[in-house]
Structure formats: C-alpha cells, structure tokens
Amino acid sequence: MLSNTDATSLIGKIAVVDLSYLIHRSYKAGGKTPTVSPHPDCASSVVPMTIERLKNDLKPAEIHFAIEAGHKHRDEILPSYKTRDPKDPELVNEYKLIVDGLLSHGESVLYATDFEADDVMATMAYQHEKNCVLITADKDMHQLCNICHVYHPYDRKEVTAQDVIEKWGVNPRQLGDLLALQGDDADSIPGVKGIGPKSAAKLLKEYYCLEGILEVADAMSEKTGKVMWKSLADNKQDAIMSRKLVQLISDVEIQSK
C-alpha cells in the first residue's frame, strides 16, 4: 500500500466519507457512552477529530459525508438482510449527534432513500471517477478501485487494485463475485456453504466470474464428486442471491440534508 506521504496524489479531489462506517467503527472501539459527557472515547468525540485529520491530509476540493437511509432494495432480495441485532439506542444517539454537528457547520451529508451509504458512494464514484476519493475501510468498496480512488481513513493509505489482488487473489472487478461466493455472516449474506475466500479466488482465477463457475457446477459435481462442486451445484440460487446483495448500486438518486 502507499505510504502516507504518497497520499499527496489524492489532494484536491472530491472526497466522499463513509460516515456510517466511521461512526460504527468508533462506537465499537469506544464502547458504551460513559457518564462523563462529552467523553474523549465516544464516537461523537472521536469522529469529528478523524474528519479534521482527513481534511488536513487530503485537502479536498469538496467533501461529502454518505449515510445510510435504509436498505429496502436488499430487503426485497433477502428479508433477513442485516437483521442480526437491534439498533443500540446509544449508537442511534451518537449517530444523531454527529450528523447534527456536521449539518450545523454547513457540511454536505448525502443519502438516498431506501439505500445504503455504499450505494451513495458508488454513485459518486461513477459520476466523478478518478477525481473522486472514497474514504472507507469497507471491503465492499474495494470493488471500485479501478473506477476511483479508495483511501483507508485509519491506515491513511490508498487501497489500489494491486492491493486487492494481493489480499484477495482477484482483481476489483471480480471481488463482488468472491464476496458472493464466501458470503458474509455480519450482513446475513449466505454465500455458498463450504466456499471460503481462498477457494473462491481459485475458482475465479480459472473461470473468471461467478456465472462461469455456476455454468459448469453440475457437470463438475458429477465428474469430480468433490464436496465443493456439489455445494456449488446445490446452492446456485444462494450464490445468485448473494451476488445481488453485494452488488453496489451506482445510479441512486442522491439527496443532501
């Protein structure tokens, strides 16, 4: 990955911050909001400091903050999507404090009704391409490394297409297929039973895409008798559904608070 000093190549671009990610990450790291308020470890104290550092590092021509406004599109595909635990009231309060604080300072907070922050960021990426820097550590957004720049807010480094290849064994265009195959327990995405990131990368190296893998699954299951191929043959619909869930929507109607 690039060193922090190499981030100068990203200066002066349109920055889109994954605010939902920053808040959730800081909240989990800081734990419950202490009785002392404002406490230096709570999200509503940490996130504004992180934002100021990002502004100093990247000196963006514009900076926008993407937030979630539902996930109806994915709920219609899988009703159990992201239903693993209820929203913590304290997290909801921290979220409101941070968003309200940004709005009070005239910052641009972007959302798309019924869509996630990821989709807002993907739409901005396709609109502005290499003049856009997405600030996030969400692996799903690494699918866009060929379209725009992706910058890790805590490592303070750009994530490049080569980084994706080294970490996952596939290029950014194939990452969505890999994520669909392996699934994601955190978001209730099933994937294909018995397929992990290494086996998914190996399959994609040979067959290039999920569609190509599923086309030969029945024949390979019968020919080889291997558990992996049988699982692929038996769970095609889960794979197809998972691919729809991890697909970034790049043409949402963006609104600003």
Produce the secondary structure layout.
Blueprint: E1 14-18, H1 19-30, H2 43-58, E2 62-66, H3 72-77, H4 89-104, E3 108-111, H5 117-128, E4 132-135, E5 149-152, E6 157-159, H6 161-168, H7 172-182, H8 197-207, H9 210-224, H10 227-234, H11 236-246, E7 255-256
Parallel strand pairs: 1-2, 1-4, 2-3, 4-5
Antiparallel strand pairs: 3-7, 5-6
Helix pairs in contact: 1-2, 1-4, 2-4, 7-8, 7-11, 9-10
Question: How would you characterize the overall build of this protein?
Answer:
The protein is α/β, with parallel strands linked by helices and 257 residues long. It has 11 helices and 7 strands. Strand 5 (149-152) and strand 6 (157-159) form a beta hairpin. Helix 1 crosses helix 4 (89-104). Residues 1-5 and 31-38 have low confidence and may be disordered.
